[in-house]
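User: Just a sanity check before I run the rest of the batch. Below are the structure tokens for the first item. I only need the designed sequence back.
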């Protein structure tokens, strides 16, 4: 039996951890807001730890899923921090959508404790997490990724090693840049069609059978934009963070990315305007308000 510690029971972390609360894993959980960990343990087989140090003390594998790499790095320190409890020889798997530079620095701090690191951000949303069908993009040496695989297979369907530490973060950030661009461009297209008096539900159906379609237009817009449901499953604040990481990576590599840079700015502004709790697809509300039209 593998002993696993899961730190960060947020919107996607909780359904991921739920898969690890089953045989053959023995699960301990920690969450900053303890009530969430207690609610999780009330319906899953897991032990609630008081501190990160306590959560990881007997763990073979530690999984984190926090907003950004900075929160993960901060969790290492202090008397109650991960480094105070982590056993030598453990494996640290960070499922946060992080940034490569901070992941490399976390990895080197862990290495000093004889702990291996894999960055393993996920894609597929809370539905994919609940269904256990996430795509997991990994960065790390081959042996560590193979060691992480049985854990990742509990909630992931497609698990791919993208390269060395930070490669998973980089692929995830670029995926998120594409997601942000798809949402924004579909929002602009539909706002224009709405202003023109075209039935947008019909227009979206046509687009989804044509070459302009995307995962956003097919799987997000019908329910959220046409249906105005806007469930809050993935915060706009987190997509803003992701696309800023993508823009920074491109800048560091000297690759001109005017489209990604513009999308990053649009999402920073939308985040400011709509606040911390808005869902990522609600960014279209900003387009609607500037255009003076409601898409649906
Ligand atoms: P949430 O905002 O729902 O949850 C964030 C989690 O991090 C909570 O457990 C929160 O604790 C904890 N946390 C926040 N700040 C700190 C801190 N300073 N110290 C310790 N813990 C902290 O985010 P998600 O679960 O949606 O996202 C988690 C990661 O997964 C992000 O990197 C995101 O980009 C990525 N992701 C999310 C997807 C989604 O559909 N939601 C899809 C794919 C990737 P508390 O309960 O106390 O607030």
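Assistant: Here's the designed sequence for the first item:
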């Amino acid at each position: 039996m593998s002993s696993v510690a899961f730190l960060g029971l947020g919107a996607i972390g909780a359904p991921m951890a739920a898969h690890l609360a089953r045989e053959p894993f023995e699960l301990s959980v920690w969450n900053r807001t303890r009530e969430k960990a207690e609610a999780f343990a009330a319906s899953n087989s897991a032990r609630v730890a008081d501190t990160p140090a306590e959560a990881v003390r007997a763990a073979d594998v530690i999984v984190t899923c926090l907003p950004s790499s900075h929160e993960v790095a901060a969790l290492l320190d202090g008397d109650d921090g991960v480094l105070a409890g982590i056993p030598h020889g453990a494996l640290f798997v960070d499922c946060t959508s992080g940034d490569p530079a901070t992941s490399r620095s976390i990895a080197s701090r862990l290495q000093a404790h004889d702990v291996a690191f894999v960055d393993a951000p996920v894609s597929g949303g809370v539905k994919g997490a609940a269904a256990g069908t996430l795509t997991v993009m990994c960065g790390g040496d081959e042996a560590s990724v193979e060691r992480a695989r049985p854990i990742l297979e509990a909630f992931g369907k497609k698990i791919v090693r993208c390269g060395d530490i930070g490669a998973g973060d980089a692929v995830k950030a670029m995926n998120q840049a594409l997601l942000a661009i798809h949402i924004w461009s579909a929002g602009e297209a539909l706002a224009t069609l709405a202003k023109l008096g075209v039935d947008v539900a019909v227009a979206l159906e046509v687009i989804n059978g044509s070459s302009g379609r995307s995962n956003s237009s097919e799987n997000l817009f019908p329910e959220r934009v046409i249906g105005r449901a806007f469930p809050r499953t993935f915060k706009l604040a987190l997509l803003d963070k992701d696309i800023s990481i993508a823009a920074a990576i491109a800048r560091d590599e000297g690759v001109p990315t005017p489209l990604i840079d513009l999308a990053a700015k649009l999402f920073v502004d939308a985040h400011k305007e709509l606040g911390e709790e808005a869902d990522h697809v609600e960014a279209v509300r900003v387009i609607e308000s500037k255009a003076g039209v409601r898409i649906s």
